[in-house]
Structures are given as C-alpha cells and as structure tokens.
Amino acid sequence: MFRIGEEAELEIFFLPEWLPQTSFSANYSNTHVRQIMEELLDNTALNYYLLEDRIILTRNNVLYDDLPEQFFGMSAEDTAGIINEVNEKDHLPVFSDWEKSSSPSNVESVNIGKANPATGTNRFFLSGTVVSAVDGKPISNLALTVQGSDQGTATNENGFYSIQLPAGENYIKTQSFGYEETVKRVVIYNDGTLNFRLREDYEQLNEVLLESGLDENVSQAVSGAEEVDVEEIKNIPLVLGERDILKVSATLPGISTAGEGAAGFNVRGGRADQNLILLDNAVIYNPAHFFGIFSALNPFTTGTANIYKGHIPAQYGGRLSSVFDLRTKKASTSDFAGEGSIGPVTGNLTLEAPIIKEKAGLMVGVRSTYSDWILKSLDEESLKDNEASFYDVTAKYNHKIGENTDLDVSGYYSKDKFNITSDSLYSYNNRLFSVELGHRFNDRHRGGVILTNSNYQFDIDYTGEFSNDFRSGYQINETGAKIHMRYRLNKKNSLQYGLASKLYLIEPGSIKPTGSESAITALSIPQEKGIEAGIFVADEFQVNEKLLINAGFRFSMFAALGKGEERIYQGGAPKRESSVVEINHYGQNEVMKTYGGPEVRVSARYLLQEDLSVKASYNSVYQYIHTLSTNTTVSPTDTYKLSDGTIKPQKANQYSLGLFKNFLDNTYELSLDGYYKTSDNIVDYKVGASLFLNPTIETEVLQGKGRSYGVEFLVKKTKGKLNGWLGYSYSKSLIQLKGDFREETVNNGEYFPSNFDKPHDFSVVANYKLTRRFSFSGNFVYQTGRPITYPVGKYNYNNSEYVMYSNRNEFRIPDYYRLDLSLNIEGNHRIDKLAHSFWSISVYNVLGRNNPYSVFFVTKDNEVKAYQSSIFSIPVPTITYNFKF
Fold first, then answer.
1. CA distances from 751 to 586, 676, 732, 737 (A)
2. CB 212, CB 188: distance < 8 Å
3. Residue-wise over 512-533: b if at least 16 C-beta within 10 A, else e?
4. Could you tell me which of 21, 172, 322, 655 has the fewest CB atoms within 10 Å of its CB?
C-alpha cells in the first residue's frame, strides 16, 4: 500500500488492522490509480475515495461528495427522494444516526458487506448459521426478528437462516427456548454472512417461553404436510411402552393402518406400497418389527420426521400417496452424550461422541428385544421352542469440512427372526447406507450430492419330517444418486432443482433344498433389473403479501433392463400360460421396455387474514415398482415387481382444497382439508392368485382404476397444561377391475371398496401437565371396520357342496376402538446430576376391547363357521424407564 502511494505520489489514509492478511501481486504500467485500487480491494470489505493527491480508505461504506444544499434539515421522505435524483445508479447512501444508535455496551455492532453504488438496490440478503456454543450443534426453529419492523425468519433443521434487510442499520434479535436472547446492531451495505454462537440459558426456563414457526400451518404454501415432534411423542401411550414415530403418525387424519399390529400405512386411500419411507434419503422397504407391533425406526436416533400426504414436493418421486422423510439427528461434536430406555420386552441405547472437537461427531444407536429370553423362561412347553426377536442398529458420522462444506454418513441395519410353527423359521432384514456432501457456494446458492443404497431380504427355513427341508426367500436392492440444489433468486423466488436416478435389482424368489435327503426341487425366478431417473425444478414464488405459490415440475423415466424374457400373449384371450404365442429374449442390460412422463406439483396459499388461509394443490405422480401381496396388510412374504411390457406403471392425480386457521396467539391450530384422487393401473389380483415363486406372475395380476376422496379435520392445542390434538376424517377408497374377460373382471366391473377402505377415522391424543414433573396422557382411536368378503350361501354340484361368496369386499368386520392411558413422571430438574430420567406407566387398551384383526371362515362338520382373530384383546400394562445424559 505504501509503495502505491510512493509510485503515484499520493498520500493514503487507513488503519493497518483493516488490511487483510493475504498477499496480492501484480505488475502495472501506465495504469490509472483507480484501476489499481479497484483490483487491489476487490475481494475485501474496503472502499476508497480519491481526493486530489490523497486516497482515503473506508471499511464497508462509501464516501459521497455530492449532496444538494437543501439536503440537511429535511424530512426522511424528502431526503430519500433527493438522494434518488443525485445518485444515478439509484443506490441510497447508508446513514447512521449515531445519537439514536448509541447502544448498551452488551449490544455488539457488526458491519456486513461492501457498499457498491452500482448494485441498483437498497435491500440485501443476510444469511448464516446459528449453533450452540456448548457443543456446536445447529439450533433449529430459532426466531430472528428485526426490531422496529414486522420482518423475521427462523432457522431450519441445519441452523441455517436467510433474511432480506434494508441497507443501513438494523437490530437483529434472536429468540429460542433454552438459549440466551441476544441483540446485534447490524449495519448492512451488501449481501453477507453473520453466524451466531449462543449459550444455553437455564435461568429463564421457568419464566420465558419463546417460540417460532407456530404459524407455518397457515403461512406455508405446501398443503397436506405434517411434522411429528420426535421429542414430544414420549408422552403418548403406545403398546408395550415403545416410542413409535410411525404409530403416532397414524393418529393424524388421512393416515391409517389396516388393523392393530399391521405393518404399513394407507394414506388418503392409497395402498401401503404407495408410500415412500426415507431415512436420510435412503428407502426403507419394511419399516416394522414384530409384524408391525413395533416400528423399525429408532426414536432416539431420529431428529426430524416430515410427512407429505397432499402436495408432494418435486424432489420426491416414485410413489403415489405420500412421503415419510425422516432424518437422523447430528452427533454432538463437543461432549459425550447418551439416551436410552428399558421396557418390558425391549431395550434401547444411543451414544454420541465427538471425533474431532467442534468439527466431527459419531452417533450409534442400538435397540433390541429380549423376548427370546422371556419365551424360554416360561413354564408353557409349547412356547419354549418358539422364537421371536429383533434388533436394529443406526449410526451417523457428521463432519464439518471447512466453513461451507458438510459431510454426513449414515448406516442402518435391522434383523427380525420368528417362528409361528415348530418347523419354520422366518427372518428378514433391512440394510441401508447414505452419504451426503453438502456445500454452500454463496449466500444464495447451496446444495448437495447424495448417494444411497438400500437392501431388503426375506427368508424361510423349513425343517420337516418328510424329507422336504428347504430354504426360500427373495431380495431387493436399490442404489440411488441425487443432486439437489437450492438457489434464492431474489426476495420473491426460491428455486430448487436437481436430478436423481436409481438402479433396481430384484431377486423375485427362489427355493433350494437343504440337506442331502431333501426331495425339494430347486427353483429360481430370474432376476429383474430396472433404472428409474427424474429431473426436477421447483419455485416458491411470492406473488404478493397474500399469495404464495409453490410450483414444481418433474419428468420421470423408467427402463426395464435385461437379461430377461418377455412373454407375448394371444390377442382376444385371457393371459394364461396356454395363450403364450411368443417369447422375446433380451441380453444383459438391453432395454426391454420404457415408460415416462411429466409430473406436475403445484400448491398455493392465499391469506384471507393474517391467521387464516386457503390452500389448493394439484399433484401428478408415477410409480414404477409394485408390491405383490394378497394380504390386506404389509407382510414379510410380500414380493416386488418392476413395471415391464405387461404390468404398467401406476399413475395418480390428486386435487386438494383446505382452510387453515390459528386462534389465540397460535395456541390452537385448525385445519379442514378435502381431497379427490384418481389412479390408473392400480395393482390387484385374481381370486386365489398364486404370487410367490410364480414365473408367469402377470397371469395372476389385474390392473384397474382407483378413486378416493375425503375430508380431514384437525385441531391442535400447542400451549398450556393441556395440549394435544383431535383428528377426524371421512374418506372413501374405491377400485374398479374391469377387464375384457370374466376372470379379469371383479364385481361386474363396478367400483367397490378397497381392502383398507375405512370411512370414519377418529382419534384424540392429549397430555395434561399436573406439574413440571407429573403429567397424564391419553389416546383414543375409533375406526370403521375394514371391508371383507363373506360366504353368503352354499350349493351342491355333482354331489359336492360348495360355498358361494358375496361380491368382493361387500361386508365389513366390526368397528375398532381403543383407549390408552399413561402416567408420566419426569426426574428432578437439577443441573448437577448424572442423568435425567423419565418414567412412563401406561395401560394399552384400557377398556379390554376385543378388536378384530381379521375374520375368516372354516368348514367344519359340513357347516361353515366364522372365526375372529385379535392381537391385543385385554388391557396391556407397561412400565418404561428412560434416561438421558
């Protein structure tokens, strides 16, 4: 800097501490000093002012030397108008009233950005992250408000925030439950970054509760989205005391199960295989333990759980009904921590440890059951040889690489084993792996690359007495890659765009003899392979203060790949093995069949009042993979099938319209949401279909149309001693199977209720806090009984008696209702203690209702008799101990 002054014969005025600790070298000849200074200061917060033989450096701001004489003493409105005339680039100077700006000593002043008259705007973006000063973890849902205005924002799950501010002086206030309240004086000259490190504030917990994001149900554009509070579900009484994110989700309107203990979910009239369940962007194919009694997702390792049942954002694809997007929480990078529970049949322990202080951490969660030990300890001989066990392991490594790059690596494995007969052992396992590299390119542009692999496998080991021992099973493997970018175009447009692809490898089924004396003949169904890809773009566009639109477009493609064969059936005849006229053979990775099409995702919010909005949405979706099952609910024995030349991809269009209202300072949330959905190529089956180990599976499959509609009502109370929600939905789910032949037509081609059609679904979840340590919780559920096909008569033919059945799903099993209660006891709230404890004493099915899971019919003594099976027909008491340190 001194050399420039000497060479140009100029005096340069500056403070040495302003100069950056970086070097810059360049050679100049016959170059004006203005060009040299601009290049020298380009990547700094410094500006310069050339005054005859002097250069004056300024930090952040710009010196102006041209103001009209009448400027001083005028009103703010008048001076703004004059400044606009004076500055050709329409960029107002930044003025600070130092008399008014004299702040208390505890208010820090920060200058952001570098003034540039050529920007042509007087509003700039301030962004950054908010983390805990103790462990470096991001603080989500923290409110940042601008004092003296109605501007504000909140941090996302990664602690990131962004807000647009007017040039000049702004006071930014942070507010969050459990963290200190801070105020910073921010003088902003251009786009820039400001990060916060906040200390925990224990002294204010008894007096101040600061919350943010409570009006998102009214203000956000996305319709039909729900978020499950993972921490709060500990108070909801569930069977055997297990916290269960998915079971709690089923108490929300529009989400139901086929029955008690059933795996899988039916969302807005859709099949269970039409839900995309993601853990850190990787697919979980069977998210259940113990036939659906327990969830396969560990609540202690889960950070967030978001459900999309209406508007499905454009970045998701491949399923018709919903997306369950679950993310594991980040491990602590500063302190060793843990959480666990001990229940009547399960134990759970999660540990977190820093690997590199303030940069990297590792979390490992292990959950297992000791039901095998319980069964072997019983006096009942018939149960001692039975087996029923499961375990799951979740691990996550998170690493902050530099200021703008984050690496997250997740792994998950679960294993179930059970036998319901003395000769068969069933087992299945989930395995997934996920790597996400996220990067912030600048204050407006960020994104990431995601690589995933999911694997699901089911096996049966049979040991009989007649030389027919065998091992049978199937497997599906999915490998995916995704690029997901976010770009804030301006204050009205926030873009998301990217592309995704996944490779499917399916082993449909095989059976192999075990032992040298087994008479079983080996059989293996050929492997299926397919590739699915999609490209997407979405824009959340603020039209005006009242209208917000989230519009997305996705184009998806699918190709069925060889090695394989395609059977061509005779036209004008039903699909049977006898009607095959030709078989086409395809080589390895040769394209056998392609599908694809556009998917439109649009959702809009219009504010009728500040706390009242109306939302509408339209979604179209393709699904290229199908679950093959003749069971009403998800079963481990389900198999999977990719779309091919015979079985077409499923398609759906959904329309929704709803009202959303908040009351009494966001204490109450009210929503009334209606939807109508049409579907094509819905998969169903012929009567008595044989699906497992069937090389000509397409001869058993029927595809038809679906139609579902409903109204969902939800009221939540989020504050006070009494909190919880009440949900009710009236819905219909119908299907039409109308083929060209009688065996491909069901119920004369008319629409009939699907297996999971339950018109009335009512639930209440409530928690009442007696004191800070003691609370009561309750859970009540009522549902219409699901459809069933009954025998309605019998007849004799050729001296044999046959049963005549009703139309498919013409009748219903009895209605379902259940009441659960629990007493929750928190440990004391002393700071200096080894761990914080929590007891839950609950009774599941307090009324002892013998709710039917299924109704079946058996011919005995020349008489057809009906039988009912139930899962829990008596009250089930449970005591669970939880601890956290």
1. 38, 15, 11, 8
2. no
3. ebeeeebebeeeebeebbbbbb
4. 21
Owner of token pair 């996305």: 222
Round the CA-based radius of gyration of the chain to a whole number and report it. Answer: 32
Which residue is associated with the tokens 């081609």?
749
C-alpha dihedral, 789 to 791 to 792 to 798, nearest 10°: 140
* Assigned token pair, 416: 């179930």
Length of the chain: 885
The rounded distance, in Å, linking the Cα atoms of 269 and 679 is 10
- Where do the structural domains in the chain lie, given as residue ranges? 2-86, 225-884
CA-to-CA distance for 18 and 114, rounded, in angstroms? Answer: 13
Q: Is the pLDDT of residue 74 over 60?
A: no
Alpha carbon separation from 826 to 337, 349, 771 (Å, rounded): 19, 19, 10
Are 829 and 772 contacting, i.e. CB atoms less than 8 angstroms apart?
yes
> Looking at residue 72, what is its pLDDT?
57
> Rounded CA gap, 242 and 293, in Å?
10
- DSSP string over 229-283: -TTGGGGS--GGG---HHHHHTTSTTEE-SSTT-BS-EETT--GGGEEEEETTEE
- Bridge partners of residue 555, in order along the sequence: 535, 598
* Alpha carbon distance 326, 565 (integer Å): 38
**Is residue 41 within 8 Å of 26, Cβ to Cβ?**
no
CATH for the 2-86 domain, from 3.40.50, 3.55.50, 3.30.750, 2.60.120: 3.55.50
> What is the DSSP track for 339-359?
EEEE-SSEEEEEEEEEEETTT
Contact (CB, 8 A) for 294 and 346: yes
8 A C-beta contact, residue 625 and residue 320: no
Report the C-alpha gap between 121 and 92 in whole angstroms: 8
pLDDT of residue 99: 45
Residue with tokens 């204490």: 667
Question: 310-332 pLDDT, tens per residue?
Answer: 999 999 999 999 999 999 999 99
Structure tokens given for 786: 């699901």
Which pLDDT band, with edges at 50, 70 and 90, does 22 fall under? low
Token couple for 378? 């019983």
pLDDT in tens, 625-645: 998 876 654 455 678 899 999
CA distances from 398 to 36, 302, 573, 648 (A): 44, 14, 58, 41
**From CA 736, how far away is CA 724, in angstroms rounded?**
39
For residue 381, with 0-12 CB atoms within 10 Å meaning exposed, 13-18 middle and 19 or more buried, which class applies?
A: exposed
Q: Which two tokens stand for residue 592?
A: 């056998």
What does the mean pLDDT of the chain come to? Answer: 85
Pair 662, 217: CB distance under 8 Å: yes
CA-nearest of 450, 455, 442 to 413 is: 455
CA distances in angstroms from 475 to 280, 506, 639, 844, listed in the order given = 21, 6, 8, 35
Architecture per CATH, domain 225-884, reads as Beta Barrel (2.40)
E strand spans, 718-759:
722-736, 752-753
754: which DSSP letter?
Answer: -
Nearest Cα neighbor of 686 from 704, 698, 703, 701 is 701
- Residue 32 is classified by DSSP as -
Least confident of 41-55, 92-106, 325-339: 92-106
Helix (H, G, I), strand (E, B) or coil at 18: helix
Quick check: pTM over 0.85?
Answer: no
779 closest CA partner among 764, 791, 767: 764
Question: Alpha helix locations (H) across 29-136?
Answer: 33-40, 76-86
Closest CA to 411 of 354, 451, 447: 451
What's the confidence (pLDDT) of residue 111? 86
Helix (H) or strand (E) holding 635: none
Higher pLDDT, 30 or 227: 227
Tell me the per-residue pLDDT of 516-546, one tens digit each, with 9 for 90 and over.
Answer: 788 888 999 999 999 999 999 999 999 999 9
